[in-house]
């Protein structure tokens, strides 16, 4: 068992939640809010599959982690980075009174990093241009159908490993359609899987490789600025990654800082003074619960099966 004592009040559940793709994500099972854990995570490390069970000990600040599988040692060593220990806020200035107050209320918010790019690329592609409900359902179906049971006792909580690159490349086109993942997104997933080794090699160099990872991701068909930002946030903990093109980010940040919804062009102008910490502004505002009121009906899942 790995016992780690962070030098700040680490909100384990909040940091891990950055990696979760909906409440039904089979690769990450979080304990209910307010509980110390265990929180369960399944991953494919450079050394092989692993299951992590992470529990925070609020009384003494310790984090306890148990690991099973060939990747146990790697994942245990990487635990502090996963929970935000390497997230450096040096140089960040609140600048705006709303950001300043949000940061004052949440001074210990951190970006974690996994160093496993494909595990962020696949669900990010699936989330492109669809509702969150549809995206989460598609990723869940993919993992349940083509992933594997995670090692150790994780079967008791329904934890599963994400599919391997080889498996992703072997899935027939009609199976993707049956999971509500259209051809454009499934082709992008398969392409990313073919480049998984190269992406992992770049990510292994850590946050300094963020520009290179951005270029590599955006060079692949079907991956643009939004997908790259989503991947860099989770894989490298990139503090400058902003999800331009997201349905909510610009509107929420605009509402919080100027009292109105804004578009991506205005968001880029608004966040420019925070470079190279632009991504921290949505993070801090989100941690403070500063989101515009949601309106309208929820969209239902669409089908992508061909009509006959």
From TrEMBL:
> Which parts form a coiled-coil structure per UniProt?
none
**Any one cellular-component term (Gene Ontology):** cytoplasm
Q: Which keywords appear in this protein's UniProt record, sorted alphabetically? A: DNA damage, DNA repair
One Gene Ontology term of the molecular function aspect: alkylated DNA binding
Concerning InterPro entries, the annotation shows: Alkylbase_DNA_Glycosylase/TA, DNA_glycosylase
Taxonomic superkingdom? Bacteria
Task: Kindly list the biological process annotations in GO that this record carries.
Answer: base-excision repair, AP site formation; DNA alkylation repair
Where is the region Disordered?
23-46
Q: Which SUPFAM superfamilies match?
A: DNA-glycosylase
Q: Which residues cross the membrane?
A: none
Keyword DNA repair included in the entry's annotation: yes
Which PANTHER family does the record associate with it?
DNA GLYCOSYLASE, DNA-3-METHYLADENINE GLYCOSYLASE
* Protein name, entry field: DNA-3-methyladenine glycosylase 2 family protein
Q: Which organism is it from?
A: Nocardioides antri
